Amino acid sequence: MNIPKTISLDHGSGGLASQHLIKDLFLKYLSNPVLDGLEDCAILEQYNGRIAMSTDSYVVDPLFFPGGNIGELAVNGTINDLAMRGARPVALSLGLIIEEGFSAVDLERIIAAIAKATELAGVDIVTGDTKVVPRGKADKIFINTTGVGVVPDKVNISGKNAQPGNVVLVSGTIGDHGITIMANQAGLAIDGDIQSDTMALHPLVDAVLQQSGDSIRVLRDPTRGGLATSLCEIASASSVSITIEEDKLPIRPPVNAACELIGLDPLYLANEGKCIVICDQEKAEATLGCMRSMDQGEEAAIIGRVIDDKPGRVTLTTRIGGSRLIEPLTGHPLPRIC
Ligand code: MG
């Protein structure tokens, strides 16, 4: 490889060093007919349907953590935002902002993870950009991905669509990603096999939409702010109330234990491979069965209901039968978890 041990300002200059970086590293892992052209932009095939588009920047610290690294997070996170409107992802862009002096070995690990995640997801990186900024002007590496997807005919998924009587499901255990990153930031080792849940959810969404069609009202990936904040957003956007039951929430015991230790609530922890599904009551059991039959939803659960109460209100029925008001995350920003 024609790349030294560390990335220099030259690698972002657009000159010869940039070309080496692109050809010897990026194309080595990410090659596909569209990207290989190295044109000013990618031209995608014609697709039938509405185009969905989403963008997200990834600044997670640490870059490498149990269960993944910033690379797969940048792929899966943007794919999931497309999937949450029922879109089938078709292409991604990749923008890198690298701090001068960043390890080329670490960069290769990240690019390899991006390649693996895109291959697993069946979505190519079709265009990209690399900038290198002087030492101290960025922290190691930041990544932006933009995704384009196609929404199949008649699919109408929105946070505004929840209706009283609907059932609320979640695709698996909550808090795994958030606690993995926050324990790492706090220098704590967690007991048990806890790791980030980063994964692409579009196969699960596809299956659920085929199973339950327009009975699926809302999909939302509870990332920053966690399940609590996402449910509050949905309740507010749909002008409904949502109630969930504490003893139905899938949470791994070590996540609960670590949360108690650090003083965190798993309801507010970020997830990077989970989704909330809100559907018509008649299709709730079939939707649950469908989710559980998929790798991405083995631990799916019905956790609550949409009710006709004060718009925007979310409540939790505790194990001992009490009722707790759930509010969106405020005041305590959880820094650099994705
Ligand atoms: Mg999202």
**Order of H and E elements:** HHEEEHEHEEEHHEHEHEHEEE
Helix content: 25-40%
Kindly give the count of domains: 2
Name of the CATH class of the largest domain: Alpha Beta
Q: Using only CA atoms, what is the Rg?
A: 21 Å
- CATH homologous group name of the largest domain: PurM-like C-terminal domain
Which stretches of 5+ consecutive residues score pLDDT under 50? none
User: Based on CA inertia axes, which overall geometry fits?
Assistant: globular
Distance between the termini: 30 Å
Alpha plus pi helix count:
9
Hetero groups bound?
Answer: magnesium ion
**Residue-averaged pLDDT, rounded?**
96
CATH architecture of the largest domain: Alpha-Beta Complex
Structural class: alpha+beta
β-strand percent reads 15-25%
CATH topology-level name of the largest domain: Phosphoribosyl-aminoimidazole Synthetase, Chain A, domain 2
Describe the main β-sheet briefly.
7 strands, mixed
**What spatial order of strands do you see in the largest sheet?**
8-10-7-11-9-12-13
